[in-house]
Amino acid sequence: MMRAILAAVLTLASVAGVSAQDRPNFEGTWQIDTATSRYYGGAPTEMITVDGSRMTISRTVAGSTASIVYMLDGTPTKNLVSVAGKQIEMTYTSRWEGNSLVTTIPGAVVNRTEKRSIAADGTMEVELTFDFFKQGKSESSIKLFIRVG
Fold it and tell me: What is the pTM of this model?
């Protein structure tokens, strides 16, 4: 009986270890593929670094660099983002759904969900969903990125 329990525990531990190892590596420099993306707004090059459970995405626009921090362990992070020319604090909470990193960003007028994954061909797909809850509508876009560094 003890052997069966020990075998079950070891099996579960090895499956959990494989699952964590199979998570995609987002680290690198990514450039949007404008030919295949379906998106709204600009799309600067993204420089992604990963340090343990902390992922940072930096984007440079007109000589100004802004960085957003994502915690890969589900810990909420507060980031300052520019919205309509104003700096506001937004909370980012990420979780893994299989091999996709899903991040929710609630707002006063719109809730945003970002689903980030790596396709079999090595491209990074970022699906953005904007829920305008006061207006009862939702919009989505897909950005496809190519790793350039």
Answer: 0.80
